[in-house]
């Protein structure tokens, strides 16, 4: 059920708003965006900005049986999937967030992960992940460290502004994570303390 497109004034008025987390027990993956875009906050739905590739990549990789509209986000927990953000407040661009905000948000995210214990925490944006958790050598893919005791997988930022990853590339990275949730194997040959893995091609200043 598509939502009405917000007006420019409604989008501008959404600065600083938050979107409730989609979370619950028994999740396979808890996806964490960087923070909501103004467009998403105006609609109340995650990854709602036109051009964002989260929902297409989620479907094409096999996480969802059909392409969901952002307004159908409440179907995700029944599929073992949840959504949250590193920083709760909406902004026009993710690079408006200060390093201190990202670090504080990372601590909150760690508490959330420890409470709900998803099988994987998937952070969508490697640069934001590095800042939030002080892991400067992190790259796309499974991480050597946990967050809140939960295994972490870093995915590319799905924003349409992230030109380094098109939908096919995003889908391939989402599919690697899906495979790990099914098989229990997470490409550990690519997950080392030295941070080797997928090339770093995902910017942290993109938005959703």
Overview of the structural elements:
It is built from 6 helices and 5 strands; from the N terminus they run H-E-H-H-E-H-E-H-E-E-H. It is α/β, with parallel strands linked by helices. The chain has a single domain, classed as Uracil-DNA glycosylase-like domain (Uracil-DNA Glycosylase, subunit E), CATH 3.40.470.10. It has a 5-stranded mixed sheet with strand order 2-1-3-5-4. Strand 4 (141-147) and strand 5 form a beta hairpin.
| Global mean pLDDT | 89
In whole angstroms, the N-to-C terminal distance is 20 Å
What is the overall number of helices? 6
Widest sheet: strand ordering: 2-1-3-5-4
Write the layout of secondary structure elements.
Blueprint: H1 8-12, E1 29-33, H2 38-43, H3 54-60, E2 81-85, H4 99-116, E3 120-124, H5 126-133, E4 141-147, E5 150-155, H6 167-183
Parallel strand pairs: 1-2, 1-3, 3-5
Antiparallel strand pairs: 4-5
Task: Write a concise keyword list for the protein shown above.
208 residues; Uracil-DNA Glycosylase, subunit E; alpha/beta; 6 helices; five-stranded mixed β-sheet
Compose a concise summary of this entry.
This protein has 208 residues and is α/β, with parallel strands linked by helices.
């Amino acid at each position: 059920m598509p939502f009405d497109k917000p007006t420019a004034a409604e989008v501008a008025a959404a600065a600083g708003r938050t979107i409730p987390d989609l979370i619950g027990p028994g999740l396979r993956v808890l996806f964490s965006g960087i923070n909501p875009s103004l467009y998403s906050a105006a609609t109340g739905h995650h990854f709602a900005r036109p051009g964002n590739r989260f929902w297409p990549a989620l479907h094409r990789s096999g996480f969802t049986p059909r392409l969901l509209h952002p307004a159908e986000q409440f179907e995700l927990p029944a599929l073992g999937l949840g959504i949250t953000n590193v920083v709760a407040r909406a902004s026009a661009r993710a690079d408006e967030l200060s390093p201190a905000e990202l670090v504080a948000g990372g601590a909150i995210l760690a508490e959330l992960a420890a409470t709900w214990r998803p099988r994987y925490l998937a952070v969508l944006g490697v640069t934001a992940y590095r800042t939030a958790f002080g892991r400067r050598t992190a790259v796309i893919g499974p991480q050597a460290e946990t967050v809140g005791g939960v295994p972490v997988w870093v995915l590319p930022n799905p924003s349409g502004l992230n030109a380094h990853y098109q939908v096919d590339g995003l889908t391939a990275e989402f599919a690697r994570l899906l495979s790990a949730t099914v098989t229990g194997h997470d490409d550990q040959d690519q997950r080392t303390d030295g941070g080797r893995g997928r090339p770093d091609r995902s910017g942290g200043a993109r938005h959703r």
